[in-house]
Amino acid sequence: MKRVSIYLMAGRDTPELAAAAVAAGADLLEIGFPFSDPLADGPVIRLAGERALAEGMRTEACLECLAETRARVDVPLIPMTYASILEAYGYDRFREAAVSAGATSFIVADLPLEAAPELPRVQLVAPTTPEERIRLAAERTDGWLYLVSLTGTTGARENVSSQLAGLVERARAVTEAPLLAGFGISTPEQAAAAAELADGIVVGSRAVEVAETEGASGLERYVASLRRAVDTVSPAVA
Amino acid sequence: MTSLDTGYFGPYGGRYVPETLVPALDELERGWREIKDDPGFALELAGLQRDYVGRPTPLYRSERLAEGKSVYLKREDLCHTGAHKINNALGQALIARRLGKQRIVAETGAGQHGVAAATVCARFGLDCVVYMGSEDMARQAPNVERMRLLGAEVSAVEFGTRTLKEATSEAIRDWITNVETTHYMIGSCVGPHPYPELVGELQAVIGREAREQILTAEGRLPDAVVACVGGGSNAIGLFGGFVDDADVRLVGVEAAGAASLGTGRAGVLHGARSSLLADDDGQIADAHSISAGLDYPGVGPEHAFLRDSGRAEYVPATDDEALAAFHLLAEREGIIPALEPAHALARALELDAELVLVGLSGRGDKDLATVLSR
Ligand SMILES: Cc1ncc(COP(=O)(O)O)c(C=O)c1O
């Protein structure tokens, strides 16, 4: 069965939003710990991060949010952040605190593959990544490999990237790890198209937008629509 | 090739970038290593430095600035486009051409690097997009006009602090998006490896010339070499000529409100680990300086290393001190400096040293509106 991963920015409503996303069929959740200068993010997540910081979502508050979210859901929870946050908190201390708050892995968007081997994390590969680096990323990744489906920052696009198919093919050639495709996926149609290729999808910007404008019930409807679309590709087996 | 040991200055530097950019940085590093050892490149660069930029720039002995000491000014303000930034832009244009990249993105604060980038892009027929914070566009308006006249697109950055920090982030995001066709012409010795090293080497011409010139003029090395530090490129270039001369003091002068080395902490910004203005949570803090070119919360990783090792010292100068030095140089020597090197001058004049060499990194035309409004 194909997996659906939903990204939410840490905030006051995140536990409730997370519960709604999981009720609608999300298999895992990424929780954004906002950073002032997020290089990998497009306007939607960047603005959500700015708002979260303005509301006081510093590292400690994010960890509390993570723990509250963990109390509501059973799926894997993955803090997604930037190296500066870990530098300041301490890599080991951050790992311990986040794991005890319920984190199951980490994503650090600007931490190179080679750095901080003591931090188990989901590695990202991009259309520009050469084969030997994909192999290395797959060896080091924690559970699944994050396919950045396009050259660019996070955010909705018109179409699923034409670069995704080639990336999936190159990754399959070197690893058995599950491949989840993210960046630029927002509609159910796109989710289905990406799930045809990969083992699952990650939706960020659109989920953040829906959560902001339509709240938990809107998010639940939206995630359900992604779930249905993805399941048409590979019907759930009981 | 992308190993953890390359591209570090002690614990600083590295490549803290989204994975998309790593192959491009590898490509850049390979291209740079090839071109560096290519006699044809060296010859072409030297020819352009001489005939296009106007190098070597003079080392001028100021007679009237300070009593009881000899102050020499390394006149980068006399470079084509009015600042040292052209040394780097020119070298990177040659690299971009070698890599087959037709499109250039750059960030700018004061507009001096943007103008330098636009200039070399005009010269080499490259497309040029310059990201600039809207706050900086307002205070450095003449440079915005200059860039446009040179055929560059100036893209206003309208979020965050609306200054150099956000402009840099936006340029990097553009590069992530257009990495196959685009070269990122970074403006200082900051950013992911190999940029700090590459920019440092392209600016090292300042220090090489200055060392030779002072030896010719005085028959000895200076007691101290002083330069302003924003990202740190003019300083690293000047220091490079003297770093192996243990008796020469190296003094970097930061804006008091942007003292990444003086009051910063270790952190990660724009692809490198360095000393930064950041809070306890690692969130980057705002910098404040009258001079747009120093108004940046980060600094090149090599400076953080030079600070820790004790080889260089870093001191602050306030807006008012820089302004006073700006007026002093204009009135005593008939030279209107940029506000950035006016910081260096302010500290240099009171140093306990007899023979002082100051990096005059740029001229002050761009700052007239700022100065006159005070
Ligand atoms: C004249 C001048 N000096 C210095 C700087 C600061 O840059 P850096 O520290 O890289 O030399 C600038 C930046 O715009 C500048 O225009």
Task: Throw out a few tags for this protein.
heterodimer; A: alpha/beta; TIM Barrel; B: 374 residues; alpha/beta; Rossmann fold; 2 domains; four-stranded parallel beta sheet; binds pyridoxal-5'-phosphate
Q: Please identify the oligomeric state.
A: heterodimer
> Would you count the extended β strands of chain B for me?
14
Domains of chain A, number: 1
CATH architecture of the largest domain in chain B: 3-Layer(aba) Sandwich
Total of helices of chain A: 9
Poorly predicted runs of chain A are: none
The percent range for strand residues of chain B is: 15-25%
Q: Which hetero ligands occur in this complex?
A: pyridoxal-5'-phosphate
Unreliable stretches of chain B (pLDDT < 50, length at least 5) are: none
Query: What is the CATH architecture assignment of chain A?
Result: Alpha-Beta Barrel
Rounded radius of gyration of chain B (Å):
19 Å
| CATH T-level topology of chain A | TIM Barrel
Q: Which class of secondary structure composition applies to the elements of chain A?
A: alpha/beta
Written overview of the protein:
- The complex is a heterodimer of chains A (238) and B (374).
- Chain A has one domain (3-230): Aldolase class I (TIM Barrel).
- Chain A is 47% helix and 14% strand.
- Chain A is built from nine helices and eight strands.
- In chain A, helix 1 packs parallel to helix 3 (59-72) and helix 1 runs parallel beside helix 9.
- Chain B is of the alpha/beta class and 374 residues long.
- The relative contact order of chain B is 0.16.
- Chains A and B meet through helix 2, helix 4 and strand 5 of A and helix 1, helix 7 and strand 11 of B.
- The structure holds pyridoxal-5'-phosphate (PLP).
- Pyridoxal-5'-phosphate binds next to helix 4, helix 9 and helix 12 of chain B.
